[in-house]
Protein backbone atom coordinates (compact mmCIF):
# COMPACT_ATOMS: atom_id res chain seq x y z
CA UNK A 1 0.00 0.00 0.00
CA UNK A 2 1.29 3.44 -0.92
CA UNK A 3 1.42 5.98 1.94
CA UNK A 4 -1.17 8.11 0.13
CA UNK A 5 -3.45 5.15 -0.54
CA UNK A 6 -3.14 5.62 -4.31
CA UNK A 7 -3.02 2.76 -6.78
CA UNK A 8 0.42 2.03 -8.26
CA UNK A 9 -0.60 3.62 -11.59
CA UNK A 10 -2.48 6.58 -10.11
CA UNK A 11 -1.31 10.18 -10.47
CA UNK A 12 -1.79 12.66 -7.68
CA UNK A 13 -4.69 15.07 -8.37
CA UNK A 14 -3.53 17.51 -11.07
CA UNK A 15 -4.86 21.02 -11.67
CA UNK A 16 -3.49 23.78 -13.88
CA UNK A 17 -4.80 27.32 -13.40
CA UNK A 18 -3.81 29.78 -16.14
CA UNK A 19 -3.50 33.56 -16.22
CA UNK A 20 -2.37 33.84 -12.61
CA UNK A 21 0.24 36.57 -13.26
CA UNK A 22 -1.01 39.89 -14.66
CA UNK A 23 2.14 41.00 -16.47
CA UNK A 24 3.58 37.74 -17.81
CA UNK A 25 2.94 36.79 -21.45
CA UNK A 26 2.00 33.32 -20.20
CA UNK A 27 1.48 31.96 -16.71
CA UNK A 28 -0.01 29.10 -14.74
CA UNK A 29 -0.10 27.57 -11.30
CA UNK A 30 0.25 23.80 -11.52
CA UNK A 31 -0.71 21.63 -8.58
CA UNK A 32 0.31 17.97 -8.49
CA UNK A 33 -1.00 16.88 -5.12
CA UNK A 34 0.86 18.95 -2.54
CA UNK A 35 3.52 20.09 -5.02
CA UNK A 36 2.61 23.56 -6.30
CA UNK A 37 4.68 25.43 -8.89
CA UNK A 38 4.15 28.89 -10.36
CA UNK A 39 5.29 29.00 -14.00
CA UNK A 40 5.63 32.18 -16.05
CA UNK A 41 6.78 32.89 -19.61
CA UNK A 42 8.45 36.14 -20.66
CA UNK A 43 8.86 37.20 -24.30
CA UNK A 44 11.99 39.12 -25.24
CA UNK A 45 12.93 40.45 -28.66
CA UNK A 46 16.52 39.31 -28.29
CA UNK A 47 18.53 36.11 -28.23
CA UNK A 48 21.82 35.04 -26.61
CA UNK A 49 24.91 36.32 -28.45
CA UNK A 50 25.66 32.93 -30.00
CA UNK A 51 22.30 33.04 -31.85
CA UNK A 52 22.47 36.58 -33.24
CA UNK A 53 21.74 36.79 -36.97
CA UNK A 54 20.90 33.08 -37.19
CA UNK A 55 17.13 33.49 -37.43
CA UNK A 56 16.71 30.99 -34.60
CA UNK A 57 14.84 31.59 -31.38
CA UNK A 58 15.64 30.33 -27.90
CA UNK A 59 13.78 28.97 -24.89
CA UNK A 60 15.50 29.03 -21.52
CA UNK A 61 14.41 28.39 -17.95
CA UNK A 62 15.12 29.33 -14.36
CA UNK A 63 14.00 27.34 -11.31
CA UNK A 64 13.85 28.12 -7.63
CA UNK A 65 12.18 27.16 -4.38
CA UNK A 66 10.66 29.57 -1.89
CA UNK A 67 12.25 29.41 1.57
CA UNK A 68 9.28 27.57 3.13
CA UNK A 69 8.42 25.38 0.16
CA UNK A 70 9.74 22.50 2.31
CA UNK A 71 9.25 21.48 5.92
CA UNK A 72 12.29 23.48 7.04
CA UNK A 73 13.32 26.91 5.83
CA UNK A 74 15.90 27.08 3.02
CA UNK A 75 18.08 30.09 2.39
CA UNK A 76 17.30 32.01 -0.78
CA UNK A 77 19.73 31.31 -3.60
CA UNK A 78 21.45 34.23 -5.30
CA UNK A 79 21.81 33.61 -9.02
CA UNK A 80 25.59 33.40 -8.78
CA UNK A 81 25.36 31.10 -5.78
CA UNK A 82 22.85 28.54 -7.01
CA UNK A 83 23.27 24.96 -5.87
CA UNK A 84 24.26 22.30 -8.36
CA UNK A 85 20.78 20.81 -8.01
CA UNK A 86 19.09 24.07 -8.98
CA UNK A 87 21.35 24.55 -12.01
CA UNK A 88 20.80 20.96 -13.14
CA UNK A 89 17.01 21.26 -12.86
CA UNK A 90 16.72 24.54 -14.75
CA UNK A 91 18.91 23.20 -17.54
CA UNK A 92 16.67 20.14 -17.72
CA UNK A 93 13.56 22.34 -17.99
CA UNK A 94 15.13 24.41 -20.78
CA UNK A 95 16.31 21.34 -22.73
CA UNK A 96 12.93 19.69 -22.37
CA UNK A 97 10.91 22.66 -23.62
CA UNK A 98 13.27 23.31 -26.53
CA UNK A 99 12.67 19.75 -27.70
CA UNK A 100 9.06 20.65 -28.47
CA UNK A 101 9.62 23.84 -30.45
CA UNK A 102 10.69 24.74 -33.98
CA UNK A 103 13.20 27.48 -33.22
CA UNK A 104 13.25 28.79 -36.79
CA UNK A 105 9.47 29.29 -36.70
CA UNK A 106 9.83 31.14 -33.39
CA UNK A 107 12.12 33.66 -35.03
CA UNK A 108 14.99 35.52 -33.43
CA UNK A 109 13.45 36.04 -30.00
CA UNK A 110 13.74 34.44 -26.57
CA UNK A 111 11.11 33.04 -24.23
CA UNK A 112 12.22 32.70 -20.62
CA UNK A 113 10.33 30.27 -18.41
CA UNK A 114 10.49 30.90 -14.65
CA UNK A 115 9.44 28.05 -12.38
CA UNK A 116 9.04 28.94 -8.70
CA UNK A 117 8.17 26.15 -6.30
CA UNK A 118 5.65 27.43 -3.76
CA UNK A 119 5.24 24.09 -2.02
CA UNK A 120 7.26 20.90 -2.49
CA UNK A 121 6.15 17.31 -1.96
CA UNK A 122 8.23 15.49 -4.56
CA UNK A 123 8.32 15.80 -8.35
CA UNK A 124 9.00 19.54 -8.53
CA UNK A 125 11.09 19.29 -11.71
CA UNK A 126 8.39 17.26 -13.44
CA UNK A 127 5.66 19.70 -12.42
CA UNK A 128 7.87 22.58 -13.60
CA UNK A 129 8.26 21.05 -17.05
CA UNK A 130 4.56 20.23 -17.39
CA UNK A 131 3.45 23.67 -16.18
CA UNK A 132 6.29 25.41 -18.00
CA UNK A 133 4.96 24.08 -21.30
CA UNK A 134 1.53 25.57 -20.57
CA UNK A 135 3.10 28.99 -19.87
CA UNK A 136 5.13 28.64 -23.08
CA UNK A 137 2.00 27.71 -25.06
CA UNK A 138 0.17 30.79 -23.81
CA UNK A 139 3.10 33.08 -24.68
CA UNK A 140 3.30 31.61 -28.18
CA UNK A 141 -0.46 32.07 -28.58
CA UNK A 142 0.03 35.76 -27.82
CA UNK A 143 2.74 36.03 -30.49
CA UNK A 144 0.50 34.37 -33.06
CA UNK A 145 -2.52 36.51 -32.18
CA UNK A 146 -0.42 39.65 -32.62
CA UNK A 147 0.78 38.41 -36.02
CA UNK A 148 4.42 38.43 -34.93
CA UNK A 149 4.82 34.86 -36.17
CA UNK A 150 2.90 33.22 -38.98
CA UNK A 151 3.17 29.52 -38.09
CA UNK A 152 2.93 27.71 -34.78
CA UNK A 153 6.45 26.90 -33.53
CA UNK A 154 5.27 24.37 -30.94
CA UNK A 155 5.54 20.93 -32.50
CA UNK A 156 4.05 18.89 -29.64
CA UNK A 157 3.13 18.92 -25.97
CA UNK A 158 5.95 18.34 -23.47
CA UNK A 159 5.31 16.87 -20.03
CA UNK A 160 7.22 14.99 -17.35
CA UNK A 161 6.44 12.49 -14.62
CA UNK A 162 8.34 10.54 -12.00
CA UNK A 163 8.26 6.78 -11.52
CA UNK A 164 10.08 4.53 -9.12
CA UNK A 165 10.42 1.26 -7.26
CA UNK A 166 8.93 1.60 -3.79
CA UNK A 167 8.57 -1.32 -1.37
CA UNK A 168 9.35 -3.65 -4.27
CA UNK A 169 6.62 -2.26 -6.54
CA UNK A 170 6.92 -0.02 -9.58
CA UNK A 171 4.78 3.07 -9.00
CA UNK A 172 3.80 6.27 -10.81
CA UNK A 173 4.24 9.87 -9.60
CA UNK A 174 6.18 9.64 -6.36
CA UNK A 175 5.41 12.04 -3.54
CA UNK A 176 8.07 12.92 -0.97
CA UNK A 177 7.25 10.05 1.40
CA UNK A 178 7.82 7.60 -1.46
CA UNK A 179 10.70 9.43 -3.12
CA UNK A 180 12.71 9.55 0.10
CA UNK A 181 12.38 5.76 0.54
CA UNK A 182 12.42 4.59 -3.09
CA UNK A 183 14.93 1.97 -4.17
CA UNK A 184 14.82 3.38 -7.71
CA UNK A 185 13.88 6.90 -8.75
CA UNK A 186 13.34 7.96 -12.36
CA UNK A 187 12.02 11.00 -14.23
CA UNK A 188 10.59 10.65 -17.73
CA UNK A 189 10.23 13.66 -20.06
CA UNK A 190 8.16 12.99 -23.17
CA UNK A 191 6.21 14.64 -25.93
CA UNK A 192 2.48 14.22 -26.21
CA UNK A 193 3.06 11.50 -28.82
CA UNK A 194 5.33 9.67 -26.32
CA UNK A 195 8.56 10.64 -28.03
CA UNK A 196 11.31 10.42 -25.43
CA UNK A 197 13.13 13.63 -24.56
CA UNK A 198 15.05 12.63 -21.46
CA UNK A 199 15.16 9.88 -18.84
CA UNK A 200 16.85 10.36 -15.49
CA UNK A 201 16.99 7.15 -13.51
CA UNK A 202 19.13 5.78 -10.72
CA UNK A 203 19.20 2.89 -8.26
CA UNK A 204 19.24 4.37 -4.79
CA UNK A 205 19.11 1.01 -3.01
CA UNK A 206 19.29 -2.23 -4.94
CA UNK A 207 19.73 -2.33 -8.70
CA UNK A 208 16.64 -2.56 -10.92
CA UNK A 209 16.01 -4.99 -13.74
CA UNK A 210 15.17 -4.49 -17.40
CA UNK A 211 11.70 -5.84 -16.62
CA UNK A 212 11.23 -3.21 -13.93
CA UNK A 213 12.50 -0.49 -16.28
CA UNK A 214 9.92 -1.55 -18.88
CA UNK A 215 7.23 -1.36 -16.19
CA UNK A 216 8.40 2.14 -15.24
CA UNK A 217 8.32 3.15 -18.91
CA UNK A 218 4.76 1.88 -19.31
CA UNK A 219 3.64 3.73 -16.19
CA UNK A 220 5.32 6.91 -17.43
CA UNK A 221 3.58 6.75 -20.80
CA UNK A 222 0.20 6.39 -19.11
CA UNK A 223 1.00 9.29 -16.78
CA UNK A 224 2.17 11.54 -19.62
CA UNK A 225 -1.09 10.88 -21.48
CA UNK A 226 -3.06 12.11 -18.47
CA UNK A 227 -0.83 15.16 -17.96
CA UNK A 228 -1.19 16.15 -21.62
CA UNK A 229 -4.97 15.95 -21.22
CA UNK A 230 -4.65 18.30 -18.22
CA UNK A 231 -2.57 20.69 -20.33
CA UNK A 232 -5.17 20.66 -23.09
CA UNK A 233 -7.97 21.32 -20.62
CA UNK A 234 -6.05 24.26 -19.14
CA UNK A 235 -5.49 26.06 -22.46
UniProtKB/TrEMBL annotation:
Function, in words: Phosphorolytic 3'-5' exoribonuclease that plays an important role in tRNA 3'-end maturation. Removes nucleotide residues following the 3'-CCA terminus of tRNAs; can also add nucleotides to the ends of RNA molecules by using nucleoside diphosphates as substrates, but this may not be physiologically important. Probably plays a role in initiation of 16S rRNA degradation (leading to ribosome degradation) during starvation.
Keyword Isomerase assigned: no
UniProt xrefs under NCBIfam families: RNasePH
Listed EC numbers: 2.7.7.56
Keywords: Nucleotidyltransferase, RNA-binding, rRNA processing, Transferase, tRNA processing, tRNA-binding
Gene: rph
Keyword Nucleotidyltransferase: yes
One GO BP: tRNA processing
Family note: Belongs to the RNase PH family.
Protein name: Ribonuclease PH
Reactions performed catalytically: tRNA(n+1) + phosphate = tRNA(n) + a ribonucleoside 5'-diphosphate
CDD domains: RNase_PH_bact
